[in-house]
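User: Thanks for the earlier help. One more: Alpha-galactosidase. Can you show the sequence and predicted structure together?

Assistant: Of course, both are below.
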Amino acid sequence: MSASTFARRCAALAVAAFALAPVLSVPEPALALENGLARTPPMGFNNWNTTQCRAEFDEAMIKGIADIFVSQGLKDAGYTYVNIDDCWALPTRNARGDLQPDPKRFPGGIKALADYVHSKGLKFGIYTSAGTKTCNTAGFPGGLGHEQQDANLFASWGVDYLKYDNCNNQGVDARKRYTAMRDALAKTGRPIVYSICEWGRTDPKVWTWGEPVGNLWRTTGDISDNWTSMIGKAKANRVLARYAGPGHWNDPDMLEVGNGGMTATEYRTHFSLWAMMAAPLLIGADLRKAGAETLAILKNTDVIALDQDPLGKQATVVSSDGGLVVYNKVLANGDRAVALSNENTSTATIATTASALGIGGAPSYELKDLWSKVTRTTTGAISASVPAHGTVVYRVSKRAGGPVTRFEAEAGTMSGGGTIDTNHAGYSGTGFVNGANAVGSHVEWKVDAAGGPVRVSFGYANGSTASRPVDLSVNGTVVATGVLFPGTGAWTNWSTVTQALTLTAGTNTIRLTATSADGPANLDYLDVVTG
């Protein structure tokens, strides 16, 4: 792959700051570039994967992306940067030596475009290369030898983010070239996230010296919209966890989610692994054409929360055996995120334990599946049947330390038409309740309590593809509507749904009432956790 190909899709970073810290020539932790930027991995958009240098890359398109960020809830989900890539400039500088926006693409100029993006509560990013020319064969001027002049111009336009590529670098030492632009950005006085797009090509590797120079750095060549490319980037990046942290991130390149070259399962793996690795989340899809499935992946706030966790820990690999990989990410509140990733072409069971994640010792744990949203409990074993090229992501939390009291469903009361069955293995107690398939079908339990807040977990199975919604009531008052019991894949796959409640002192009646004609899921038990 050519240097030009490697260069053009670099994701984003952050730089702007203080004087040069000592450069380390060995792969040891360096002092971070403490410019206050990119304390969590940057989130946003870059046009390259969508448009490259085609004529559709223009002012109207970028303004439209900013509009979509707002209208589709991407801004609310945390996406901030609207970045433009190569081909925004004319092939020559003006008489003053300044870069010139292409007047056909950007008739209003770059400052006006940045102002528009800022008016939406977003930030604006731009691109150039740490060489004499950028990576496009048209030969747009690069920043080598013009660092302060270009930095001053970018600051005057209101640029918030600079992606600095590596083409046509004339063989000048990478640290020297990237440090020169770092210092130039700092002298402007404007906070500008600085993305080192060096591709991890030269020695010493950029991750061994990048921390005091940039806010993030590319660790790989360019990503392509296919499984082999994407998983290859993940493999290269996942071994570099010790170099990542607040303000300095490993960058395995932009997201391909939604570009059409992978399945939805593969795109969920792509998004999951980038979040687990605390990578920048820069959308590379054409948001003007993005469907509901693509937007649902990009706006999964539970997965985004892993990427944006303030502790800033990149996941490490707990185990990797024949393409079955377990990733572990330590979170700021003491939880763990675990990704069970299947790199093979057939379904496989992947397993680990809470102890292997460094969170052992609790009597039980809550596992929240961040894609299906199903919550279940475990005493420490963590496993899932993972489809080909799929990834299951759990958030693992120690459960409250108080006592757990179990109330079997078959010992409760059900409405007419329901039965107590035993034909699906894996249930607790002597059976489970198979409620009538009707709106209003219900199961209720009598629970004695001292009074106060509790957590309740309902054991259930749902072998259908549709969720089975219910209303949850306590002592005749509905306290939660539309509580979902998602499909578990088979009637023998048992899971849990957990809810926080407040009970009164004495006997309480807890009821689940179906709100769809399918009735409730098969119900196994009610656990009440106090304390």
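User: Great, one quick takeaway?

Assistant: Confidence is low (pLDDT under 50) at residues 1-31.
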